[in-house]
Amino acid sequence: MIRKREDTTLTLFFTGGVSLKTWADVGNLDRELGIYKRLSDKLKRVNFITYGGKQDEIYADNLGDIKLLPARWYSRRMFTTLHLLLKYYSELNDTDIIKTNQIPGSEIPLWFKKHLGKKLIVRCGYLHSRNTIKESKDEKVIRDAVELERNAFSAADMGIVTSTWQRDRIMEQYNLDPEKIKVIPNYVVTDVFKPHPEIKKNYDLVFVGRGGKEKNIDNLLKAMHYLKRKKRNISLLMVGGCYRDKKIKETANNYALDVTFKGNMPNFDLPYILNQARVFILPSYYEGHPKTLLEAMSCGLPCIGSDVTGIKEDIEHIKTGYLCDTDHESIANAIETVISDEALQKTIGKNAREYILKKYSIDQILEMELKVIREVIDK
After folding, report:
1. Domain 5-187+361-378's class?
2. Nearest partner of 219 among 332, 99, 365, 300, judged by Cα
3. Domain boundaries, given as residue ranges, for the chain
4. Average pLDDT of 30-38?
């Protein structure tokens, strides 16, 4: 039995089909590497199983002491498993703890736990079953997602979710032992995501993210149009994958709105962009534990968010942010209220920054990760 944390090797399996290039392309490479670089300083070794093949090797210099084990991703999971077994048997056999990054693709680390007798930490940042239920009408797809999630958490030596509501939901849904499910929230690198009062405010609002239906961009644009008809013109900066969405651009053009689009960018460049806006907005229909919201709060931005699970847990209305409903009139009223009140902006922005420093700094999250690793190796 392993007794020392510093003698432990941890192998992280990326989400099925996801590569280092995927992280880099969406601008998340620096953000995602942060915690694992710190863990590699505390453990014997951290390995990454990624699914970009040789193209991931160009990012090896970004990994620090993390060992890269790039692999091919096959549509049939057993082919991927066999490929890993043949290519990296030695590294996998020397691993003490296997960890998932998300639920999709977790069949593979589950197989290695069973056949190599390794400890397994199942981590997810969002509930795969919940998102699938909301996004798919295919009953088989939904059943498969629920079954995969159930199997993963049931087999795990420890499960990690990013919020209390997720923990409560899966414990009830899968009848899990409460001692086996821990909450480790997403972290923020608070010395990077911080206020920059010297930066000029060029936009009223900023949104960061992709343009999926759950983000409720359509009602955000309708809210801006609603305000425009009231002679209140609002400028919006949209950053990230949403810039590829033709429907969003067409709607903004049809309403003749003041919307600026910027594509994906390195995560650590975002603070400069965020600080150019007066207010951050996230009007989603649902969220898991949104990193963009936490990062905006860390920058001291006053944040408007919809009063839904995944957002309302971190925004206390008129204290750490401003809550609204998901319809366009409620969003418009929230925008008008916050934009018109500089004192309110300063108060909730300051409170938001203090809240993030207290709960989500990367050093605090590192200690939580190390505590879970300690518990798992002592089992």
Report:
1. alpha beta
2. 332
3. 5-187+361-378, 203-359
4. 96
The residue-averaged pLDDT of 289-300 equals 98
Superfamily per CATH, domain 203-359? Glycogen Phosphorylase B; (3.40.50.2000)
Distance CA 212, CA 245 (A): 9
What's the rounded Cα separation, in Å, for the pair 369 and 366? 5
User: What mean pLDDT do residues 219-242 have?
Assistant: 96
- CA–CA dist 114, 165 (Å, integer): 29
The answer to pTM > 0.90 is yes
pLDDT digits (tens, 9 = 90+) for 38-82: 999 999 999 999 999 999 999 999 999 999 999 999 989 999 999
**DSSP assignment of 56-76, as one string?**
GGGGGGGSTTPEEEE----SS
Q: By 3-state DSSP, what share of the chain in percent is helix, strand and coil, each rounded to 5?
A: 50, 15, 35
Residues 102 and 121: their CA atoms lie apart, in Å, by 11
Question: pLDDT band at 244, cuts 50/70/90?
Answer: confident
Q: Phi and psi at residue 377, in whole multiples of 5°?
A: -75, -20
